[in-house]
Each structure stands twice: as structure tokens, then as C-alpha cells.
């Protein structure tokens, strides 16, 4: 009995020691496994912070600008070297102005007068035009450099003429034009008869030539002489450059109709260029 009990206690003690030993081994393995896992994470997965590792700069891709040239590529500078010598306009050599010469083609013809005032039988006649009602000064200015004239008539009670005068320059011609117009407006060369009165019935300008004025004097009988005839005296003065043209007509009655006389004035101005 005593022997069996000892062996039993011995067996139990040995078993207890073995169990304790196994427990210690198991505890040691758990501690080693936890320590190895921590060191492995630190070595294989390092923590990344900003600036710890260098970064590769991004590669920029040139983009096309409005002209189609990549903006990243410097454009070529314009050349400052002139390609050739600048050309200069030719210098004109001044020449003295040639004076206008009066020629007969600058005068109205009998046919043109007849066309402007039809069914009157107008025709040009030989010789110089007769002095009009307002005198010789109503046909020319001062310092005349050349003159031409032509006479017209119906062969009955109507007549007229054209006077061309040339001057050294346009300024002198303008002075002559103004003087002629003023002379016609005053018309002191010939006074009407005591039985008649005179009035200016037309005084206007036309946009022909460089200056044109139409004036018309009308002589009419006073009541004291009712049987006397009246008379019409239209004038047209035109300046073109250094030339002045004067038309002066006269006849019994009202004279050449205003519309017809204007056509005559325009035709005369067209001859002056």
C-alpha cells in the first residue's frame, strides 16, 4: 500500500512538472511572436512624411498658343536688318503756269443761241458786238490781257452779244468779275427816257463756272406815256479761272424769257471748260 501511494504521488508530481514546463514554453513563444511582428512592420513599412523623400518634378508639355507655336518654344525675333533701301517719291519739277489763251471756240455760236431761245431766228453776225445798255464797263474789267466778242441778232428788234476777257491770274479775274457785276447793278451808263422808268427784275446766281450772276433790267413806260414800248435787258456774267464771260441782250418787250436765258448762260459757261 505504501509503495503504490508513493508511485502515485511521484507520477503525479512528474506530470505536474511536465505541465508547468510546457506552460512556460508556450508563454515564451507568445512573447517572441509579438516582438517580431513589431520590428517587421517598422522595417518593411516606413512611415512617409512630407519632404522625407525627393519628388520628381512634373514634365511640362508645350501647349500651342493662338498662332500655333508652342508656348514653351521661344519665338524667333524679327530681323532688324532692313531688306532694302526705302524708295522716295519722285520730285516734281515745278513749271510756270501757262496762261489761258482765248480762242473763238470759247464763244457761243448762232446755232446755240437759236437752240436756247428757239423760233426767234437768232444768228451770229460779223463784226464786234455792240455796246450793251450798261456801257462798255459792263463787259470788261481792268488790266485785260486778251479779249474776244461775238454779236447775235434776230434780224428784227432783238440783238445781243458775248464778251470774253482774259486776265493775268484768277485773282485779277475775280476782281474784274465783281467790278462788272457792280457796274451792271448800278447801270449808270444809260438812263431811261423821261417817259420811262427802270427796275432790276432779276438778280440771282447759278452754280456754273466758278461764279455766275444773272441780272435783268426792265424799262417800262410811265402812265404819262402809255403808248411807249417797254424793253428787256438781261445780263449773265461768268468767271472760270482767269477768264470772264459776259452775255448781254436787248429787245423790245420783256426780253429773252428767263428760262431760255438761263439755258444760254449754262451753254456759255460750258465753253469755258
List keywords for this structure.
273 residues; alpha+beta; Protein Transport Mog1p, Chain A; 7-stranded antiparallel sheet; 4 helices; 7 strands; 29% helix; globular; disordered N terminus; signal; PknH-like protein
Write up this protein:
The chain has 273 residues and is an alpha+beta fold. The protein has helices at residues 2-44, 110-116, 170-186, 258-270; strands spanning 123-125, 146-153, 158-166, 196-205, 211-221, 231-240, 243-252. It has a seven-stranded antiparallel sheet, with helices on both faces. It is globular, with a radius of gyration of 62 Å. Keywords: Signal. Residues 40-54, 61-86 have a biased composition (Low complexity). Residues 29-100, 113-139 are annotated as: Disordered. Residues 87-97 have a biased composition (Pro residues).
Amino acid at each position: 500500500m505504501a509503495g503504490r501511494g508513493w508511485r502515485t504521488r511521484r507520477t503525479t508530481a512528474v506530470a505536474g512538472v511536465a505541465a508547468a514546463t510546457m506552460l512556460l514554453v508556450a508563454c515564451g513563444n507568445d512573447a517572441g511572436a509579438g516582438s517580431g511582428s513589431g520590428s517587421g512592420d517598422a522595417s518593411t513599412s516606413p512611415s512617409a512624411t512630407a519632404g522625407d523623400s525627393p519628388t520628381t518634378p512634373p514634365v511640362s508639355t508645350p501647349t500651342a498658343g493662338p498662332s500655333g507655336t508652342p508656348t514653351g518654344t521661344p519665338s524667333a525675333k524679327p530681323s532688324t536688318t532692313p531688306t532694302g533701301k526705302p524708295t522716295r517719291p519722285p520730285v516734281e519739277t515745278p513749271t510756270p503756269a501757262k496762261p489761258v489763251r482765248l480762242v473763238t471756240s470759247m464763244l457761243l455760236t448762232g446755232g446755240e443761241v437759236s437752240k436756247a431761245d428757239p423760233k426767234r431766228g437768232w444768228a451770229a453776225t460779223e463784226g464786234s458786238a455792240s455796246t450793251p445798255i450798261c456801257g462798255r464797263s459792263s463787259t470788261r474789267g481792268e488790266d485785260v490781257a486778251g479779249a474776244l466778242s461775238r454779236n447775235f441778232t434776230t434780224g428784227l428788234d432783238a440783238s445781243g452779244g458775248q464778251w470774253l476777257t482774259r486776265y493775268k491770274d484768277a485773282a485779277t479775274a475775280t476782281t474784274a468779275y465783281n467790278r462788272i457785276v457792280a457796274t451792271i447793278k448800278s447801270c449808270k451808263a444809260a438812263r431811261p427816257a423821261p417817259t420811262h422808268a427802270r427796275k432790276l427784275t432779276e438778280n440771282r446766281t447759278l452754280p456754273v463756272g466758278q461764279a455766275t450772276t444773272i441780272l435783268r433790267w426792265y424799262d417800262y413806260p410811265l402812265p404819262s406815256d402809255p403808248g411807249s414800248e417797254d424793253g428787256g435787258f438781261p445780263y449773265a456774267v461768268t468767271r472760270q479761272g482767269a477768264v470772264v464771260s459776259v452775255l448781254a441782250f436787248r429787245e423790245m418787250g420783256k426780253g429773252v424769257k428767263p428760262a431760255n436765258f438761263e439755258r444760254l448762260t449754262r451753254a456759255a459757261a460750258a465753253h469755258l471748260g
